[in-house]
Backbone:
């Protein structure tokens, strides 16, 4: 009897000490790269729902009831922020009724706001297209910024789930070790890409270009979020005749029609890049995202020579 009481007391105590039990930290990840990063940093402690796939345009998704339900259960939402999800996340936050994941709460983690952002506009004019006032939100394509975001996310996990703080600390340090080694490898492999002129579909690659020293030779979209027009494409083709580019790139979620047209007309390879984890077979995890991006661009560079 005495033994059972003790067992019960221990169970009760552990329930009190572990309000969040293993695999019980409910995480709502807006995009696959943040689900992948959370998996790296939280391991079995997190039960992750990913709101979008690599086949979906993260600027625009449908606020399905299943997503509202997932956000309602969440202890932590890990999203890009900086306005990327402005068309759907605020609505999910409101409908979820979950105070833990509202803006400014510890349960609301915005990855892009943890790093220095590019293309922050001096002023915002709707006529300029889908401009994000907080700057370009597509930070996931720079692994240096990803390292900073990982450190911030580790701190947030410790804050939200203090019982497993030591574990998050250890996992974060292990991730950083593996990440720095991979970064050195990527920096080395991508050297031939430095200074290469590349046409993009959408301004989603500013951080990749910043990291690798690529030069943007033009965009297929007329303005951010505005589909390519025949007139704009003809203009772009004329510009490329004067100052050639080596390739045109587009994200796995985008249509390849405009890129294929330019590829034919300007005789440069059109390259599909994963943009996020799962966008291509090679981008099966966070490390593969950069491996595959660099490999595909190097292959296109060889092809264009
Ligand atoms: Zn965008």
Residues:
């Amino acid at each position: 009897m005495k033994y059972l009481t003790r067992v019960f007391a221990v169970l009760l105590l552990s329930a009190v000490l572990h309000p969040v039990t293993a695999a019980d930290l409910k995480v709502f990840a807006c995009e696959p790269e943040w689900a992948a990063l959370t998996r790296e940093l939280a391991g079995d402690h997190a039960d992750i729902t990913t709101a979008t796939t690599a086949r979906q345009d993260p600027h625009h998704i449908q606020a399905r009831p299943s997503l509202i339900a997932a956000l309602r259960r969440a202890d932590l939402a890990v999203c890009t922020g900086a306005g990327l999800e402005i068309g759907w996340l605020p609505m999910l936050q409101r409908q979820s009724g979950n105070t833990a994941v509202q803006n400014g709460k510890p349960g609301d983690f915005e990855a892009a706001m943890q790093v220095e952002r590019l293309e922050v506009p001096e002023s915002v004019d709707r006529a300029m297209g889908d401009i994000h006032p907080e700057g370009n939100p597509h930070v996931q394509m720079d692994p240096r910024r990803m390292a900073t975001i990982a450190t911030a996310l580790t701190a947030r996990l410790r804050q939200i789930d203090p019982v497993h703080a030591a574990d998050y600390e250890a996992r974060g340090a292990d991730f950083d070790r593996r990440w720095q080694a991979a970064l050195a490898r990527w920096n080395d492999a991508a050297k031939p890409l430095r200074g290469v002129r590349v046409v993009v579909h959408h301004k989603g690659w500013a951080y990749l270009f910043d990291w690798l020293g690529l030069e943007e030779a033009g965009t297929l979209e007329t303005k951010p979020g505005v589909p390519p027009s025949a007139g704009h494409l003809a203009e772009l083709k004329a510009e490329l005749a004067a100052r050639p580019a080596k390739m045109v790139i587009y994200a796995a979620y985008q249509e390849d029609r405009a890129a294929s047209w330019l590829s034919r007309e300007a005789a440069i390879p059109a390259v599909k890049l994963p943009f996020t984890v799962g966008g291509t077979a090679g981008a099966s995890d966070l490390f593969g995202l950069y491996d595959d991006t660099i490999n595909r661009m190097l292959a296109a560079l060889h092809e264009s020579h």
Notes: The chain has a mean pLDDT of 92. The first strand starts at residue 25 and ends at 29. The pocket of zinc ion is lined by residues 59, 138, 202, 204, 224 (CB under 6 Å).
